[in-house]
């Protein structure tokens, strides 16, 4: 079978001097699928970068309304191809076609594309700021180079490099995109690219605005993110790969936004456990096993106080995990990494309560796993015991007393989320102490619910302190905030009014656009 084409410079073409090829592996059987996808050489990458350079120039004359029109049409085209996309993704990932893709991921994907379209058209996202007395005006504008997007394996739609939140934010803020497919779902990504290209053609936008490369060698990835023509990079994946790309990009002073590992700690206070322990155990069990635990917001670390209620809770939780059928993991690599992480936790002092091993089957499957460790052992080896076990696994840390529970909070690394379960109307003092510590260590603070699930809301923060991400000030979910990552602040000092961008002229060009004029937010003209 021939190698699949890449999307470069506006058309599907044979890869130039590919280094090799790969095939998607079916997680249920471990068998390679028939289609072969190229591992591109840097020749392809340079062609994509060169094409993006011209796309940047063409996009300067494209109206925000036309970009919004593309995003809206693309969302509609995705819905028209819902069955094919969901079927393909289910084969490539072993995630359920209806309950995961048709019911959850696809609506979320089209929703965030449409939210991005509204933000592009409204223009308030660019934060136009005008000082009439000094005649200085500024706004956020496109970067002047393509946004390179590395998509993860666990969300083939909503975080896909050519359809997900990073993509929507980059396009809505006026940048071209070079998408690097995740090798776990190349067929799904190709369908998205085909659908996107049709929408570009119908809207009359530069066809070089969106390009797709399936895979590349690590060293070529480093060259790509640090290339002079690259505007910024967005990466979601492992800490090892993220840090390597971050080093390469920042060594060349290039923007990069990385989302990596995390444990999303959950603190369950003693009176909350006494009040509704069974209900919390059910919530935690469901959260740990949802999507085979392959969520970046999976609750990987749970902190409890040593007492009989905690022992009863652990017993109930372990039984629920044992009675929940093990799911299939996304890939052999995920299975191997999970096995290694559980082994590392055991070596560091954690004990297996349930699970802890691979299921004897052809599928990539691992038993739902619960581990426990004392607060003393955790504090002695806190770094190693914060190893992420990406999959249906969670570590219980049993604190000796309240003081130690607070100390454990101070030893936590940066995370995307942190949850606190407290009594309905008590434990306010303990909450205040833990919250003061946890608030600085997580992007999203949660009360009385598990962290899995990220609402596509303008108020959402899907980010956090290192090593959850590379910068605590940004989010990859939530329009328009996510768009600011892919923009540059442009200032105009004493520039003649007819030469100003539309957003900075005296007349408000988009009606509803909010601007900061002489210290007041307003939609009025000057």
Provide structural commentary:
Helices cover 38% and strands 19% of the residues. Helix 3 runs antiparallel to helix 6, helix 7 crosses helix 8 and helix 13 packs parallel to helix 14. It starts with 5 loop residues before the first strand and ends with a strand. A seven-stranded mixed β-sheet has the order 17-18-19-16-15-20-21, with helices on both faces. Helix 14 links the parallel strand 20 and strand 21. The protein folds into two domains: 255 residues, Aldehyde Dehydrogenase, Chain A, domain 1, CATH 3.40.605; 182 residues, Aldehyde Dehydrogenase, Chain A, domain 2 (3-Layer(aba) Sandwich). With 526 residues, it is an alpha/beta fold. The model has no long low-confidence stretch (mean pLDDT 96).
Runs with pLDDT <50, length 5+? none
Termini gap? 63 Å
Largest sheet: 7 strands, mixed
Number-wise, the strands total 24
Structure annotation, total helices: 14
Shape: globular
**Structural domain count:** 2
Looking at the overall shape, the CATH architecture of the largest domain is: 3-Layer(aba) Sandwich
Question: CATH-wise, what's the superfamily of the largest domain?
Answer: Aldehyde Dehydrogenase, Chain A, domain 1
Rounded radius of gyration (Å) = 24 Å
